């Protein structure tokens, strides 16, 4: 038990040191949450993430560790979830804006979602910048403590959970763009944009 506690404390210290190494003061970053991003709650201690795989429609497996080295906005959604459907075009826009800039938007269809319905939804909404990942049995989602949808989790480049938002959000709003620019680029420019 003592060994696990020591490992957990070291993990926490190293994780927050790593976030600070990216030039981020989380308390300053939190002040940039405007509009629906106010629901994004930063953890006082980072949380480890699931290593259970999720798949592409052709069965190729991925794990969250495959995305290390950049921030990840991990969204759990379903075709039958109205708030999920509402926010997916915004997530697509956010993905386009930050593609190649240090933020990867990863969307995972959780639970019962027939593949034809997912493909139809992607096509009807021109979701051309979002990966199509599946967690058909919900095992990965449950291991990530996703008990309802939508849930969006923010991971650091080191692959740890640093924040979580329950419900939907306006992911491609001007306020969200300022926030994510600050996240990937550092805070000074974002503070100027906001007028501080």
TrEMBL record:
What keyword terms does UniProt attach to this protein? Redox-active center, Signal
User: Which superkingdom, per the lineage?
Assistant: Bacteria
- Record's keyword annotation contains Signal: yes
What Pfam families does this protein map onto?
A: AhpC-TSA
List, for all copies, the residue spans of the domain called Thioredoxin.
43-185
Alphabetized GO MF terms? antioxidant activity; disulfide oxidoreductase activity
Q: Does the keyword Signal apply?
A: yes
Signal sequence, renumbered to the chain = 1-20
Which InterPro entries did the record assign? AhpC/TSA (IPR000866), Thioredoxin-like_sf (IPR036249), Thioredoxin_CS (IPR017937), Thioredoxin_domain (IPR013766), Thioredoxin_ResA/DsbE_sf (IPR050553)
Q: Record's PANTHER family?
A: THIOL:DISULFIDE INTERCHANGE PROTEIN DSBE, THIOREDOXIN-LIKE PROTEIN HI_1115
**Listed name of the protein:** Thiol:disulfide interchange protein TlpA
Q: Whose protein is this, by species? A: Pacificibacter marinus
User: Its gene?
Assistant: tlpA
